[in-house]
Amino acid sequence: MSSKLYFRTIADLAAALDAKQLSSVELTQAVIARTQAVEPRIHAFNSFDEADALAQAAASDARRAAGQSCGPLDGIPIGLKDVIAVTGQPLTASSKMLKDFVSPYDATVTTKLKKAGAVLWGRLNCDEFAMGSSTENSAFGPTGNPWDPTRVPGGSSGGSSAALAAGEAIATLGSDTGGSIRQPAALCGVVGLKPTYGLVSRFGLIAFASSLDQIGPFTRTVEDAAIVLGAIAGHDERDSTSFQAEIPDYRAALTSQRGPWKLGIPKEYFAAGLDPEIATAVEKAIAFYQSQGCEIREVSLPHTQYCLDTYYVIATAEASSNLSRYDGIRYGHRSAVGKDAVDIYAHSRAEGFGPEVKRRIILGTYVLSSGYYDAYYLRAQKVRTLIRQDFLHAFRDVDALLTPTSPMPAFKIGEKADPLALYLCDIYTIGVNLAGLPAISVPCGFTKSGLPIGAQLIGQPWKESNLLAIAHAYERAHDWSAQFPIF
Amino acid sequence: MSSAPALDIDHIAKLARLALTAEEKATFAQQLGDVLHHIEQLAKVDVTGVEPTAHASPIFNVWQADVAQPGLTVADALRNAPAQRDNMILVPKVVE
Amino acid sequence: MNYEAVIGLEVHVQIKTQSKMFTRVATGYGHEPNTLTDPVVLALPGALPVMNKAALDAIIKAGLLLGCEIAPVCKWDRKNYFYPDSPKNYQISQYDQPICLGGSVEIELPASARNLMGEHKKIPLTRIHLEEDVGKLNHGATDSLVDYNRAGTPLMEIVSDPAMHSAEEAYAYLTSIRATMIYGGISDCDMEKGQLRCDANISIRPVGATHLGTKVELKNLNSISFVRDGIDHEIKRQIAVVERGGTLVQETRDYDGQTGTSQSLRSKEMAHDYRYFPDPDLMPVRVDAEWKTRLQAECPELPFAKQRRFFEQYQVPYSLTSVLVWDRMLADYFEAAAQLAGPGKAQAVGNWIVNDLLRELSRGSAAAVGDAALRPRSPARDGGLAAPADAHALATSKVRPAHIAALVNMVDAGTVLTNAAKEIFIEMAATGDQPAAIAEKRGLCAAPIDTNELETWCRDAIAANPKAVAEYKSGKDSAINALKGPVMKAAKGKANPKLVDETLRRLLAVM
C-alpha cells in the first residue's frame, strides 16, 4: 500500500473513511494538490472545479458523520472522461466543437455515482469524440503517460488512465468503443474494465458508435473495478440498449467464485506484430494460471483478421450519423463564415472538428452512401455476426480468453502519424466490442525500459463476476498494481 | 497505395456538410484510400446466408408508457445556443 | 388527345399522444416556443431515444382499420439529411421494414345529387410507417427562428399506390383517411394545427396507356380544399405543358393555396442521398398475435361500414346516414335513440337528429365559438367533418337519446302532433325536460277527437272528392292524400294523422 493517499485504493480508503481515520475533504484535498502538482506535465484534465469537489467531499463527510454513508464510494474522488454529462459542468468531448458547452443534464452513470456519494472530480481529456488510440487527437492538446510523459497514455480514454496512474483521482470512468478503456489501462499500468454491451447505461455518454460504446471504470485493482462496476451497472429505461439483468455483488464474487478455470488462448492474438516483451509477459501470466491448476487451451477465432475492417466500417458509419447533430445551430461552435444555414453547417463543422474526426465522418458517410451500403455496411454487419459466433463458439469450451491488451507499449507522442498504423493499436481489443463481450485489462509487467504491459481477459456475456474473479486471482499473486510512476 | 477510385471526396464532403480545404481533401483521399484498400478484404469473407448483426444481443419491444414528464426549461434549452431571439434559435436565412 | 392523371398521396398524420415518439417530454400545440423540449428533442450530446408504446399501439390500430398486414418484426432506420428543423440531422423513420404493409382506403365519389350515394372505390395502400416530426422554422426577411416544440411528435406516413386519377378521388381519399383516424382516436387530424399534412405525386399519361409519366411532387397541400385545388391545378398545368409540345421534368413543386399557383423548389442539395441505416440506439419491434388481437378489439366500425349497417338494420336512407355516420359520437347517439325508440322508428329518430338536433347544436356552438354553424357532413359531399365544437355540443346537449326516442313515440301514438312536437323539441333542448312533461305543462297534447265526428269528416271528404276516390280505387295509393287535407282542415289540425289515414282507408275499402 502506498503511503500517499492519492495512490491508495477505493477499498482501502473506504475503510479508512468508515473508521474516521480520514475525511473525504482531506482525501479530496490531497487529490487536488497532487493534480495541481502534476497537471503541467500530464495534462489529464480538460477542466476541474476544486470548490465543487470540496463541497461534495464536505457533504460526504456530513453523511458519514450522520451515519448515512452511501457505501464504499462515498467521499471517493472519481474523474469522468469528458464525454459523460454532468449537470452544470462542461462537456467537450475534447473538441473545439463543444469547447463552451455546459451540460444541462446528468448522464445515468453520473446520477448513479452521485447516489453512491462519489466526489465527481474533473473532466478528463481524451481523443476528440473518443476517436483515437493515443489521446493525441484532443483539441486541447495531448496527455502524457505518467510512466514517461513524452509517451502517449493510450486512448481514447487517455486522460482517464493517466489521471489515475498519476494519482490525480482514485478511480476514473472512460468509454470503450474499440479498446478505449483497455488499451490506455494497459499503457498506463492500471486496471480497465469494459463491461458487456448493455450492462452500463449509455444515456448521457456522447455517442461515438452506438452499437459498440460502453462505459467502464479505470481502477488500481480488480477489487476497485468490482466496486465501481457495482455502482454504475444496471438497467436504465432511458437507454433502449440497456439490458434487464440482475446486478450481482461483484465484490463478493471475487472470493466466492473460485477456479480452477478453463482459459482459452486465441492463437490469432499471438501472431506477427506483437511486441516480444509483451508476448513474454502475457505468456508468464498464462503460466501462472496453469500453475494454479487452470486448464489452458489454444482456441481459434478465425475471423480475427477481419475485425479491424469490420470495426472501421461499422464504427465510422454510426459515427458519421451520430456526429451530424454537431452543426452549430442549437449549441456548439458556429462559424462566422457562411451566408445561409447550409454554409453554416459546412463551415462550423470544418472549423469545429479535428482531422481524425473529419476523416472518420468522411469514411462513415462514404460507406453508407448510395451504391456502397451493401458492399460495406451490410457486409460488415454480416462479418460481425461471424466474429461474434467465433467468440461464442470458443466459450463453449472455456470460461475466458487470455490475450495481450495492446500489441505495443506506450509509444512516443507524435510517433505514429499514419492513421492506419494507429488503427492497428486496437487489433486485440476491437473484436470484444463487435461481439459485445466484457473484457478487462490487468497490469502484467513492465518492459525493460519500464513501460507497463497489460493482459486482457475476455469473458462470457454478462459474466462479469467470473471475469473479475479470474483477474483478481492473478492480481493477488502479483504486485504490479503496487508500483507507481516516479515523478 | 492509390486512393480508391470510388471515393469522390467532394461529393462525400458535401453530403457530410464538411467544408474541407483542398489540402485536407488531398490528404484524406490518400489516407482513406489506404484504409479502404484494407477494408476491401471484407469482400473475401463468405457471408452467404449470414444474418447481419445490428446489436450484439438484440432484445425486442423496449419502450416506455406514454406518460409525459417534465422537460428542460427554456433557459436550459437555449443556454448553449450560439444565437437566439424570442426564445427561439436564430439561424441565417434558410435558402431552399 | 385525352389525358389521364395518376396520383399517389403521402399523408402525414400526427398521432395523438401525451409524450413524444422517442422521449417522454409532453407533446402539444400552441405552447410558448421551446417549452416542450428535453435533451432528446434538442439532440444534446449523449441523449438517447426510447419508443413510445402508445404511438406503436396507434399505428397498429390504424393499420388494422385500413386492412394492412402488420409486420411481425419491424425496425428503425436513420434518414440522414441536414436541416435546421431536424435537431439530430437525421430523422428516425422506417425504411425497408415498415410496420404496416398493403391495405386500402374506401372512398365515396360525389353523385349527381346530394341525397344520392356516390360510387365507392378502394384505393390501395403501399405502406404505413412511423417516424418523428421535425421542429418549426419561422422564416423572416433576413433570418429564421427555430422552435422545437413540435420536434419528435409521433408521425405516421400513409403512402398510397399511384392509384387515383382525379383531384376528386384524392380529396375523397384524404377525407376518408381523416375520418378513419378520428374514428380510431388515432389523431384529431386538424390541418390547421398541422396534424394532417399531404404531399401528392402527380403524373399524366394518354388515356389507355399503362406506363407512368414523369412524376411531379406537389408539396404544402395544407388544407383540405388546397388538396383538391392544388392537384387540379397541377394536372391542368402538366397537360398544358405537354400540349404545347413541352417536356415535363421530375421536380418538387410548392403549391400556394392563396394564389392558386405552384412554383418549382430548387433544393440546394439536388441529389438526395439519405444514407438510411438501422438505428443502433433502438431495438426492433415484434408484434405478436395477442397484441394485434387486443388492438383489433379496440377498433371501431368505420363510417362506410356503419352506413351500410344502418341501412340494413334500421332501413335509414342515405340522405340521413350520410350525415349521421361521419361523426362517431353522433352515430352512437343515433343508434342509442333508435334502440330506445323501438322497431320501425329509426327513420323518424334520424330525421329528428339530422334536422332538429343538429340545428339546435349549431345554434349553441355558433353562440359558444362565435363562428358559423358547424355540423358533420358526408365528406363525399363537401368534406366537412365534425369540428370539436360540435362534438362538445353533442356531448353536453340537454337532449339525450331517450328524449328523442320518447318524442318519436309520442308522435307515433298521436299523443302530440308534428307541429307541437317541434315546439316541444325546442323547449327540450333548452331545458332538458322530458317531452311528456313539456307537452303536459304547455297543453300541447293532441285533443282526443270523437271517432264519430272524425268518421263524419272523412265521409264528407270522400263525398266531396270523387276524382281522388276514383284514382285511389284504380290503384293510385297517393291519391288518398287529397282526402286528408279536408279532414285535417275540419279537425283544425288536431286530428291524429295516423287515425285519419286508417279511417279513410276503412271507409274507402267498403265502398
Question: What do these coordinates show?
Answer:
The complex is a heterotrimer of chains A (487), B (96) and C (511). Chain A has helices spanning 10-18, 24-42, 50-65, 108-115, 158-165, 182-188, 222-232, 250-256, 276-291, 307-322, 341-352, 355-368, 374-394, 419-423, 430-435, 464-476; strands at residues 45-47, 77-81, 119-124, 171-176, 191-194, 214-219, 262-266, 295-299, 400-404, 439-446, 452-459. Chain A is built from 16 helices and eleven strands. With 487 residues, chain A is of the alpha/beta class. The model of chain A has no long low-confidence stretch (mean pLDDT 96). Chain A folds into two domains: 5-264 and 402-482, Amidase signature (AS) enzymes (Alpha-Beta Complex), CATH 3.90.1300.10; 305-382, no CATH class. With 96 residues, chain B is an alpha+beta fold. In chain B, a hairpin with a 2-residue loop joins strand 2 and strand 3 (88-92). Chain B starts with 8 loop residues before the first helix and ends with a strand. Chain B has a domain at 1-45. Chain B has helices at residues 9-15, 22-39, 74-78; strands at residues 63-64, 84-85, 88-92. Chain C is α+β, with helices and mostly antiparallel strands and 511 residues long. In chain C, the strands form four sheets. In chain C, strands 1, 3, 7, 8, 9, 12, 13, 14, 15 and 16 form a ten-stranded mixed sheet that branches. Chain C has a three-stranded antiparallel sheet with strand order 6-5-17, with no helix packed on it. Chain C has 16 helices and 18 strands. In chain C, helix 1 packs across helix 4 (289-298), helix 2 (167-183) runs antiparallel to helix 3 and helix 10 runs antiparallel to helix 11. Chains in contact: A-B, A-C, B-C. The B-C interface holds B 14-15, 17, 54-55, 58-72, 74, 77-78, 85-96 and C 17-19, 24-27, 32-39, 41-42, 50-56, 73, 75, 82-84, 137-148, 265-269, 273, 275, 278, 280, 282-286.
Order of helices and strands of chain A: HHEHEHEHEHEEHHEHEHHHHEHHEEH
The CATH level-2 architecture of the largest domain in chain A is identified as: Alpha-Beta Complex
> Approximately how much helix is present in the residues of chain C?
40-55%
Largest sheet of chain A: 11 strands, mixed
Q: What is the share of helical residues of chain A?
A: 25-40%
- What order do the strands of the largest sheet of chain A run in, or round the barrel if closed? 1-3-2-4-6-5-10-11-9-7-8
Mean pLDDT of chain A: 96
Whole-number total of structural domains of chain A: 2
Question: How much strand of chain C?
Answer: 15-25%
- What portion of residues of chain A belong to β-strands? 5-15%
